[in-house]
From TrEMBL:
Protein name in the entry: Thiamine-monophosphate kinase
Gene: thiL
Keyword Membrane: no
Source species: Methanofollis liminatans DSM 4140
Pathway assigned to this chain's UniProt record: Cofactor biosynthesis; thiamine diphosphate biosynthesis; thiamine diphosphate from thiamine phosphate: step 1/1
Protein's GO biological process: thiamine biosynthetic process; thiamine diphosphate biosynthetic process
All residue ranges annotated as the PurM-like N-terminal domain in the record: 21-127
Pfam families: AIRS (PF00586), AIRS_C (PF02769)
Keywords annotated in UniProt: ATP-binding, Kinase, Magnesium, Metal-binding, Nucleotide-binding, Thiamine biosynthesis, Transferase
Binding site for Mg(2+) 1: 37-38, 111
Catalytic reaction list: thiamine phosphate + ATP = thiamine diphosphate + ADP
HAMAP family xref list: TMP_kinase
Length: 286
């Protein structure tokens, strides 16, 4: 069993909207509230060698990234922390606060208890006049990504120069806001890798996605073939994947690369071959 099939089983219970986007969306007055929650565990999410401060930063950053992915402005974060050792709370909180401040977000509360494995749940609230959803891709739109992809996987594979990229994600809040204003038609973050994210987008769009791997922005100094593999299938990069009509690209102030096109046929292709839905997915052996 894997995370994706388990989440799909919720659709008949909760409705498709509950699992369609990086954040839940609630209309409130003249704007929208966006809400996201993310759970991180020491063994699966915090590579050995991270300090508590870095762990706190990462816990805040992954949730702020989901808010950025809606083209929304982060407002407040709650941090619930299950601690294996009480003395870790100060460092974790300092790191989370540093990240919140960097993105204009209030660390407004949380919860604390004891747990065998350090476990952190960060829950964030943001606002947008109109959120950008994962659905909304139009045939003929460009498929684009901000920054570069595969850096976190490069670090996990021994390219130590990408360590910071792995442990200190920088959510693309300013880019998300600019892309919202600049006409992005669909958007999400690529936390689980590009291939998996394109398949997530496929699940909520009638059209399809075709990318050219030579166009992928890969980590500097990594051989091209390996870099493309990291970019397609590696997780832990918190860049934005978006679609936009060609006449609206590039979007002022956003460093992004066009990697492909939205097509009428339903599917995901790389260099003309079907791209598997492979990436960073939580699984259960029983
Ligand atoms: N246990 C759950 N109950 C309800 N919705 C869930 C649950 N787990 C995941 N979701 C929803 O499924 C979608 C996909 O989740 P996820 O892949 O974790 O998103 P992301 O990678 O952006 O954090 C999101 O809209 C999320 O809110
Ligand atoms: C041991 C380890 N492997 C990989 C990563 C990189 N990484 C950070 S978050 C993430 C994927 C996203 O995690 P998930 O819990 O699925 O968050 P979501 O996609 O729901 O936001 C990855 C691969 C890591 N931090 N630690
Ligand atoms: Mg996301
Ligand atoms: Mg998330
Ligand atoms: Mg997840």
């Amino acid at each position: 069993m894997d995370e994706r099939s388990l989440i799909r089983s919720l659709v008949p219970v909760l409705g498709a909207a509950a699992t369609a986007d990086d954040c839940a969306t609630i209309q409130h007055g003249g704007e929208w509230l966006v809400l996201s929650t993310d759970m991180l565990h020491e063994t699966t999410d915090f590579p050995a060698g991270m300090t508590d401060r870095e762990i706190g930063w990462m816990a805040a950053a992954v949730t702020i990234s989901d808010i950025a992915a809606m083209g929304a402005r982060p407002v407040a974060l709650l941090l619930a922390t299950g601690l294996d050792r009480p003395e870790r709370l100060a460092g974790i909180t300092a790191g989370a606060l540093e990240c919140c401040r960097a993105y204009g977000c209030d660390l407004a509360g949380g919860d604390t208890d004891a747990h065998t494995e350090l476990t952190i749940v960060s829950t964030g609230l943001g606002t947008a006049l109109r959120p950008v959803r994962r659905s909304g891709a139009g045939i003929g739109d460009l498929i684009c990504v901000t920054g570069y992809l595969g850096g976190a996987q490069a670090a996990l594979s021994g390219y130590d120069q990408f360590w910071e990229r792995l442990i200190a994600p920088e959510p693309r809040v300013a880019a998300g806001l600019a892309l919202n204003a600049g006409g992005a038609t669909a958007m999400m973050d690529v936390s689980d890798g590009l291939a998996m994210s394109l398949h997530d987008m496929l699940g909520v769009n009638d059209c399809g996605f075709t990318v050219e791997t030579v166009r992928l922005p890969i980590p500097d100094g990594v051989p091209a073939e390996e870099g493309r593999d990291f970019a397609l299938f590696g997780g832990g990069d918190f860049e934005l994947l978006f679609t936009v009509p060609p006449e609206r690209f590039p979007v002022a102030g956003v460093e992004a690369t066009a990697i492909g096109r939205v097509v009428a046929e339903h599917g995901v292709w790389a260099d003309g071959a079907s791209l598997p839905a492979r990436g960073y997915v939580h699984t259960w052996t029983k």
